[in-house]
Specification:
The protein has 24 helices and 22 strands. The chain is of the alpha+beta class. The chain folds into six domains: 80 residues, no CATH class; 92 residues, 2-Layer Sandwich (Beta-Lactamase); 156 residues, Beta-Lactamase (2-Layer Sandwich); 101 residues, PAS domain (Beta-Lactamase); 59 residues, no CATH class; 165 residues, Histidine kinase-like ATPase, C-terminal domain (Heat Shock Protein 90, 2-Layer Sandwich). The strands form five sheets. Strands 2-1-5-4-3 form a five-stranded antiparallel beta sheet, sandwiched between helices. Strands 7-6-10-9-8 form a five-stranded antiparallel beta sheet. A five-stranded antiparallel beta sheet has the order 12-11-15-14-13, with helices on both faces.
Length: 736
C-alpha cells in the first residue's frame, strides 16, 4: 500500500513537464523539453514495472510462507502420531548414531523396574543390571559393535525385575529396546535365574567340600568349628542338602531338607544312617515306588568311598519331581543335593507338548508356514514350507536367520522388492507392525499367495500358499466368460442385422399381396384368392416372428425402454382379444374373460402388456383342443395386478416346464402349428422389465395356467402428456 501511495505522488510530479510542454505554443517545444519528456516517461515505465515486480514477489513470498506453514504443521502432526505410537507400549527405545550423542526416543517403563530414563545412565548397563546379567550382556554387546550381530536377552535389574533387551543395527545407528517381561516368559526367566543360582550354589558347595576333603586329619580336626560355621550358612539355601560321613550317618543338613521330607528335626539330629532315612521315607510313602527296593537301595548307597558323582531323577508319590545329586568324596562321605524341578519339568513338558501339537498341526496344512522369532531366526516351520521352496530339513532345523532363508529362496524367485518387504516384516524395530499380503508368479510357472502376520511375542508368521491351479481355473473361466459374452454379442448383432434385412423384402411382398387382393386391380378367381390369402397370412406371421426376434435382441442388449403410463385394463385385454380373434375362429376355441371389480388401471407400457397377453392367449389357443375354452382372468393381489391365462389342453411335463421360458424352445402338439418358441420368453423378459414375475402351473392332461404379476404403480411414471406424444412401440399382430 505504501508503494502505491508513493507511486501516486510520484506520477503527477513527473508529468508536470509534460503538461508544461503541452501548454506551450506549437512550434515552441525545444530539444531540452523533449529530452526531459523522454526521461520522465522512462522513469514512469521503470517505476510501474518495479511496482508490479514487487507486488508479484510479495505474492509469491506469501504463497511460499503459507505452503511452508502447511508443511510444518504436517510434520508436527506426523511427529505427534509417532510419539503416540511409541508411547502406546511400555518400553524404552534408545538410538545411538555414529559420532552423535545417544537419543532416548521413548521411556515409559514403570520406575519400579529399575530402568533409568537418562540416555547416559541407560547405556551404563552395569549400573542398573545385576552382576550376572551385566556379565551375560557384555559379549553380546561386543558382537553387536564389531560384527553387527543382533541379540535378544532376558536380564534382571538390581530391583529384582526381569526385562527383555533387544539390540540391533539400523544403518549407521544402533537401536536398543528394553521391554518388561510378563506371563509365561516371566516365569521362564525366573526359573532360568533360579537354576543359574542353584548351579552357582552347588559349585560353591562342591568347592568347599573338595577343599575340606583335601586337608589331612589334623587340619580337619582343627578346622571343624569353621566348617560347622560354613554349613550353618547353607541353612538359608532353598535347595535341600544333607551330608553323610564315612559311616553313612547324617552329619549335616539344612531346614530345606527337613521341609522337603517332612522328617522330625530331633530325630535327624540323632545322626541316623542313610539307609534308615530311606526306609522311613519309603514307609511313609514319600519315595518313588521301586520294583525291587532292596536292590535299588544297595545300588544307591554304593558310591560311599568311591569318589564318584551320581545324578538321578525321583518322581515322588505326591507328584513332585526331584533332581538328586549324590557327590561321594574319597574319604567315604556323601553329600546329597535335592532340587525340586516339578515346575520346571511341567513347564518344559507343556512347552514341548505345545510345540509338538503346533508342528503336527502345521504339517497337516497345505500352506507353507514359517515362524521367525524376534531375533530374526527361524523358530518353527512345516513340511509344506520346505517343499514350496525346495529346502531340506537340515537347512531349516539349524534355525537359520531370515537373511539366509531369503538367499536360499532367491533360487526360485529373485525379486528384490518382495524379499526386502519380507525382511523388514521380520526384523524391523517399530512400535506398531502391520501385516501385509502379496501374490507373485514364479519363473517355474507356480503362483504363490504370501502373507506376513506379526505375533504378540515379537515374532513373525509367514505363510505361502500355492494357488497355481486355482488361478489357472480362474483365468480360464474369465477367458471363457469373455468368449461367451463375445459370442452372445455377435449372435445378437447377427440376429438383429438379419431381422432388419428380412423386414424390407417382407414388407414389399405383403404390399404386393395386398394390392392383388384389392378389387381395383381386377377380380381374382377362387384359387387365386386362396393363394393371396395364404401369402398374406404367412407373410403376417413371418413379420410378427421377425418383430419378436428384434424385441428379444433389444431386450438382451439392454436397450429396450418402457413407456410407463396409466393404462386401462379393459382396453389392454380387448386389444389382445382382437389380435387372436381369427385364431379363435380357425381353431374353434372359446375365450372367456373375467375382470375383477375395482381393477381399472395399471401403470405400465400399454403396447408391451398387450403383447404379453397376446402371446399368452396364442399359446393357450395352440395347445387347446377343438371346442375347448381359454380363460383370461384379471385380478388384484396386494400391490400387484395379476393376468392369468388358463387352458385345458395337453399340459406340459414337469421336467420341461422351466425350459419353456428359454428362447427358441417349442414343442409340436399333434398336427397343430409349432411356433418359434419366442412367445413365453418375451413374456418373461417384459414382465421382469416392468418389475413383475411370471409363474407357470401345469400337469399332463390337465392343461396349463400362466400368471403374470405386474406392479399397479411405479415410483417414477412418465407424464401423461409425454405418453400421448410418444408413438406406439408395438403392433398387436404377434405370433407365439
Amino acid at each position: 500500500m505504501a508503494r502505491r501511495r508513493a507511486l501516486a505522488y510520484l506520477i503527477p510530479s513527473l508529468l508536470f513537464p509534460i503538461d508544461a510542454a503541452m501548454a506551450a505554443e506549437p512550434g515552441s517545444v525545444d530539444a531540452q523539453t523533449l529530452l526531459t519528456l523522454g526521461i520522465n516517461l522512462g522513469i514512469i515505465a521503470f517505476a510501474v514495472g518495479t511496482a508490479i515486480a514487487c507486488m508479484r514477489a510479495t505474492k509469491r513470498a506469501r504463497e511460499q510462507e503459507a505452503s511452508a506453514s502447511v508443511e510444518a504443521e504436517r510434520y508436527r502432526l506426523s511427529e505427534s502420531t509417532l510419539e503416540t505410537v511409541l508411547a502406546a507400549e511400555p518400553q524404552a527405545l534408545l538410538t545411538l548414531a555414529e559420532g552423535a550423542q545417544p537419543e532416548l526416543l521413548v521411556s515409559n517403563l514403570p520406575a519400579s523396574i529399575g530402568v533409568p530414563r537418562d540416555p547416559e545412565r541407560l547405556l551404563d548397563f552395569a549400573g542398573w543390571l545385576d552382576a550376572a546379567s551385566a556379565a551375560e550382556l557384555e559379549p553380546a554387546m561386543q558382537e553387536l559393535s564389531e560384527n553387527g550381530e543382533p541379540f535378544n536377552i532376558m536380564l534382571r535389574t538390581k530391583q529384582n525385575k526381569y526385562v527383555e533387551l533387544d539390540g540391533r543395527t539400523a544403518g549407521r545407528s544402533v537401536v536398543f529396546k528394553v521391554r518388561n517381561i510378563a506371563g509365561d516368559r516371566l516365569e521362564f526367566a525366573d526359573l532360568s535365574i533360579r537354576h543359574r543360582e542353584l548351579e552357582e550354589q552347588v559349585a560353591a558347595l562342591r568347592g568347599l567340600l573338595d577343599a575340606e576333603a583335601s586337608k589331612n586329619e589334623r587340619s580337619r580336626a582343627e578346622s571343624k568349628p569353621s566348617m560347622e560355621t560354613n554349613f550353618r550358612s547353607f541353612d538359608r539355601l532353598a535347595t535341600a542338602f544333607a551330608v553323610f560321613d564315612a559311616t553313612q550317618r547324617l552329619a549335616h543338613f539344612n531346614q530345606a531338607y527337613v521341609d522337603l521330607w517332612q522328617l522330625d528335626a530331633e530325630w535327624l539330629a540323632g545322626h541316623p544312617r542313610d539307609g534308615e532315612i530311606l526306609d522311613r521315607l519309603r514307609h511313609a510313602r514319600r519315595l518313588q515306588e521301586r520294583a525291587d527296593y532292596p536292590d535299588w537301595k544297595r545300588s544307591w548307597l554304593a558310591p560311599y568311598g568311591t569318589d564318584t558323582q551320581v545324578e538321578d531323577t525321583w518322581h515322588l508319590a505326591d507328584g513332585r519331581t526331584l533332581h538328586v545329586i549324590a557327590d561321594a568324596d574319597g574319604e567315604g562321605g556323601v553329600t546329597y543335593l535335592y532340587e525340586n524341578v516339578t515346575k520346571q519339568i511341567a513347564l518344559e513338558s507343556s512347552y514341548n507338548a505345545l510345540i509338538q501339537v503346533q508342528r503336527e498341526t502345521l504339517d497337516t496344512l497345505r500352506e507353507g508356514v514359517a515362524v521367525f522369532a524376534s531375533d530374526g531366526r527361524l523358530k518353527l516351520y512345516n513340511s509344506a514350507f520346505a517343499t514350496i521352496w525346495n529346502l531340506t530339513p537340515g537347512q531349516l532345523d539349524a534355525k537359520p536367520h531370515v537373511e539366509d532363508v531369503i538367499n536360499w529362496c532367491r533360487d526360485l524367485y529373485d525379486v528384490a522388492e518382495e524379499w526386502e518387504r519380507t525382511k523388514a516384516a521380520v526384523t524391523a524395530i517399530v512400535a506398531e507392525r502391520r501385516p501385509y499380503e502379496s501374490q507373485f508368479d514364479r519363473p517355474d510357472g507356480s503362483i504363490l499367495d504370501c502373507a506376513a502376520l506379526p505375533l504378540p511375542d515379537g515374532g513373525t508368521l509367514l505363510t505361502y500358499s500355492d494357488v497355481s491351479d486355482t488361478k489357472r481355473v480362474e483365468r480360464a473361466l474369465i477367458d471363457k466368460n469373455e468368449a461367451l459374452e463375445a459370442a452372445d454379442r455377435i449372435k445378437s448383432e447377427f440376429v438383429s442385422h438379419v431381422s432388419y434385412e428380412l423386414r424390407t423384402p417382407l414388407n414389399s411382398m405383403l404390399g404386393f399381396a395386398q394390392m392383388l387382393a384389392e378389387p381395383i386391380f381386377g377380380t381374382l378367381g377362387d384359387k387365386q384368392r386362396e393363394y393371396v390369402d395364404d401369402i398374406l397370412s404367412s407373410g403376417t406371421t413371418l413379420r410378427a416372428l421377425v418383430d419378436d426376434i428384434l424385441d428379444l435382441a433389444t431386450i438382451d442388449a439392454g436397450t429396450l425402454e418402457l413407456k410407463l403410463a396409466p393404462a386401462n385394463v379393459r382396453d389392454l385385454i380387448e386389444a389382445a382379444r382382437q389380435g387372436v380373434e381369427e385364431r379363435l375362429k380357425q381353431d374353434d376355441v372359446k375365450l372367456e374373460i373375467d375382470i375383477a371389480r375395482g381393477v381399472d388401471e395399471v401403470a405400465a407400457d400399454a403396447s408391451r402388456v398387450t403383447q404379453m397377453l397376446y402371446n399368452l392367449l396364442s399359446n393357450a389357443i395352440t395347445f387347446s383342443t377343438s371346442g375347448g375354452t381359454v380363460k383370461l382372468i384379471c385380478g388384484r393381489e396386494g400391490s400387484m395386478i395379476a393376468f392369468t391365462v388358463e387352458d385345458r389342453g395337453a399340459g406340459i411335463p414337469e421336467d420341461y416346464q422351466q425350459a419353456v421360458f428359454d428362447p427358441f424352445e417349442s414343442r409340436a402338439h399333434g398336427s397343430r402349428h409349432r411356433g418359434a418358441g419366442l412367445g413365453l420368453s418375451i413374456v418373461k423378459s417384459l414382465a421382469e422389465l416392468h418389475g413383475g414375475t411370471v409363474t407357470l402351473v401345469s400337469a399332463p392332461g390337465e392343461g396349463t395356467s400362466v400368471k403374470v404379476l405386474l406392479p399397479l404403480k411405479h415410483e417414477t411414471e412418465q407424464p401423461v402428456a409425454e405418453q400421448l406424444d410418444a408413438e406406439p412401440q408395438y403392433k398387436i399382430n404377434r405370433a407365439g
